[in-house]
Amino acid sequence: MENGIPDKIVVAVDTIILAMGQSGLEVMLVKLKNKPYENCWALPGSVVGVFESLEETAKRILVKRVGDSRLHLEQLYCFGNPNRDARGRSISVAYFVLLSNKEKVNSHLTEQYLDMKWFNVNNLPEMAFDHREIVKVAMEKLAYKLDEIEIIRPLLPTKFTLSELQRVYEILSGKKIDKRNFIKKVKNDEMVVPTMEMKTGEAYRPAKLFRFK
Amino acid sequence: MENGIPDKIVVAVDTIILAMGQSGLEVMLVKLKNKPYENCWALPGSVVGVFESLEETAKRILVKRVGDSRLHLEQLYCFGNPNRDARGRSISVAYFVLLSNKEKVNSHLTEQYLDMKWFNVNNLPEMAFDHREIVKVAMEKLAYKLDEIEIIRPLLPTKFTLSELQRVYEILSGKKIDKRNFIKKVKNDEMVVPTMEMKTGEAYRPAKLFRFK
Fold first, then answer.
1. Please, what is the end-to-end C-alpha distance for chain B in angstroms?
2. What is the pLDDT of residues A35-63, one digit of tens each?
3. In chain B, which residue's Cα lies nearest the Cα of A144?
């Protein structure tokens, strides 16, 4: 610091870890320990190491939070408003990742945070920094990239019904979709192929199971 | 520096300034003055000021290079490989902008650079840092966003023929497009509307002029 002016910008990576839960699409948040953000919820993040690429930092966070570094990570955006961090000037390069199974997450609380929880993306708590905005930008990007298989694939089991696929589209786009139009679209896109199996054992009549091409 | 390990990461913004030229899509490059990149070509850039947002830095560069800050800027990606800059650890947040008229650019050489030139994006010189890769990523993004009007609009005059529109699509996608399919697509997308005018005075038969909706 020189005359109160910070002479460097801290570079951080924050991760938006998403998975399907009972309530719909959920994001993993951590409760911060240190002032001035004590008890605030935030995205899991870290300062970038001097010898790390940005993606390596994101993978390091992932290993710590979900015990897996082989997931499909994608850079979302770089956030750099001068007042985004009350502790000093920082920028955050945000990465998002979609998990196929929240329950399998091999996660544990470390000394770094007070708590860790999944929140529905439409029902977030008060959050530190600009992390609420970061989640919003992630949702916009997901809606925009809805037709990319890398976005959809992790959110469904290996075999799924068209109703299950439609639900994922509706959750990511935030819009109700007409069933007949959806089936037409799925056929046109040739993204999925039918299997020989049916989904049974539920309160509905049996439905054909599909898989991604 | 401490034991040869840099204790901070420099945050820079680099701009990919694009315009249509005689040769197709062209990018503005500057020739660097200082070692170790003396005489190397690079994208115009700047270190982010302590009180500036990333977008403000990008606008500052634009004003200096093209004399206009009201252009549609878009963040491309944040590049952060540890070895991308021989002078020390730095990250670059890249922004791209599409100019409607290269000839109108009110540009001038400043003491910062040795030279400034437009290069066809498919015929770039040797470039400093990872700037060649940055241009490549920008081209991929443009091809991906080809159907967004903000991408296409600046590259055409107010009124244009369908052949001119097709040429822009071909240049941005890097692919030859079948004329009949293109006309079908244009009609489906409802992105353009016909005007009452015709383009004449060239070696071809007169063609209908269109404008964006």
1. 56
2. 999 999 999 999 999 899 999 999 999 99
3. B145
